[in-house]
Predict the structure.
Amino acid sequence: MQFKWNYTPPADIQGNAAKDLGEKLGISPILASLLIRRGITTESAAKRFFRPQLADLINPFLMKDMDAAVDRLNDAMGHKERILVYGDYDVDGCTAVALVYKFLRQFYSNIDYYIPDRYDEGYGVSKKGIDFAKETGVKLIIILDCGIKAIDEITYAKEQGIDFIICDHHVPDEVMPPAVAILNPKRPDDTYPFKDLCGCGVGFKFMQAFAKNNNIPFSRLVPLLDFCAVSIAADLVPVVDENRILAFHGLKQLNQNASLGLKAIIDICGLNGRELSMSDIIFKIGPRINASGRMENGKKSVDLLVEREYSLALNQAKHIDEYNEQRKDVDRQMTEEANQIVARLESQKHQSSIVLYDEHWKKGVIGIVASRLTEIYFRPTVVLTRDENLATGSARSVAGFDVYAAIKSCRDLLLNFGGHTYAAGLTMKWADVKEFRERFQAFVEEHIEPEQREAILDIDAVIDFKDITKKLHTDLKRFAPFGPGNSKPLFCTLDVYDFGTSKVVGREQEHIKLELVDSNSNNVMNGIAFGQSASARYIKSKRSFDIAYTIEDNVFKRGAVQLQIEDIRPTEDS
């Protein structure tokens, strides 16, 4: 992939501001400039950023319908009604169900949970799920990470004498379901100050309000924060404001005293004994929780997450790990097939988007394939498969483009759709797929900006190797947890050379292990460039080049750092 580097040098006034802020905080101007680039310009704001406090969480009762939700839950528990906690089959939905169920079962026993089968029931509220609730005597369903568009299903449930409390974060329609309470900060009539909670985050706010109303100490909620960190990382919501507080303390919980189910996954992944980061969740923990719902049934992931016995949790984690291996095999095969289709379709090369469909693709993996294609071709992508006479699919987007709006523009062709800016799901008649593709691509062509079609690296600062000190590396760690809205700081050093010992490594010789020296300080730095062996010949030619990189721990040399090279390009005048 060819990257465009984007770097705006600080104006003099910003440079002075960085110097002043750095002196107040006792950090370097480089670190202070990183804060300013994140909109943090005062000493008090910087202290809140570096030391997120649970006391600064927003009052949950500021969310619309929260009073009604807590009252209905209190009423259900007071009358000993059976409660069902219902959620989506992805990481966000499963962690949300686990969080709410685990918290409430401490105080109430007449409670159960339900995850719909992706293949038998599809996304969201299903009639089968409601019938199960009716048969088991359920009077109240708390639904998490879905439900905001389930008008017909919730109307049907109401006719069966079942109430719903919706906890969702997906964009609602103008008309919403007849639930007793709808908790969703994206409601246009909701003035809740933070709009970007994940589904698990909304569930946490509901439990926070319930605890506050019933004089339950907040400390009883703290052990569940690891679920919030997992969902925030996996669902790729912005790691800012309230999400940053939840992720920061959730990671702390995950590292110090993870719930048994998550601890079992950590052990299966081989991550025990090391400090876990958001990246570990994204690439190791999250995919395993997802794998159960993708390959069979997401309920097995919740079974694991709420398990009380570690030995049982470990066995369940092993089964989920097997699902993940199966998922990876299917994922590789489908991505390869999709790439072959893109290569064959000459017309796709000039399109601003990709819409692919194949009736044999596995429904549970098409979202991953859509993500892969978006990363490879850097275009909004929809991948569809066939389910009898219907086409169901997943959409993924590039930075800055609202794929949900593109799908919504075709809503007259759709039987169901939902999601948010960068990811969405949709269902239509198989016969309408070709028309959908034409209209979706026309919408993208009209609304996408030229820069949104490029892979861009946003450089935070241009530095020399002499600036990379142990203190800088320690201070950079204070910027974590990283994610959308707070990316890991990306640096650039110009005019560097191979020290003479750089070499290609990896099973397929696809990576480069680097030893580099820069022109200004003559300091030598170790680095690794994953998947960039194509640059090896140029590097060994002794000509200078520029690098964009993050600064990481050197896993082979305790206390040392290494550069993780994101891109390499020849120096312009070399």
In short: The chain has a mean pLDDT of 92. The longest helix spans residues 310-344.
